[in-house]
Design a protein that fits this description.
This protein is α+β, with helices and mostly antiparallel strands. It contains three helices and two strands, in the order E-E-H-H-H. The chain has one domain. The chain has a two-stranded antiparallel sheet with strand order 1-2. The longest helix has 21 residues.
């Protein structure tokens, strides 16, 4: 079993400390960049909402991307799995 490393991540306007496999760090950071970029995009289009609304919009956007409905046939299954792990970590923190 690979050892988990602690990393600090920023999602929206909050920082979180999570533990991930060292091999997954680059993918997690790439995913976070995509999420944060999308949050900024939604903030410019939908002014006046709070951060929770933007994060919900991004999650809905990601969940409805073509090919994300069936994880087994999805080439982004690792990305989806990583997001699920991140969500579980965030749920523990919150």
């Amino acid at each position: 079993m690979q050892e988990l490393i602690p990393v600090n991540i920023v999602l929206g306007d909050r920082s979180y400390r999570i533990k991930i496999n060292a091999a997954d760090e680059q993918e997690v950071r790439k995913t976070l960049k995509t999420i944060n970029d999308k949050i900024i995009e939604f903030k410019t289009h939908f002014a006046g909402k709070d951060m929770q609304d933007y994060i919900a919009m991004v999650l809905l956007w990601f969940a409805t991307l073509p090919g994300t409905s069936d994880i087994e046939s999805n080439p982004n299954a690792l990305l989806h799995e990583t997001l699920q792990k991140m969500e579980q970590q965030l749920d523990k923190v919150l």
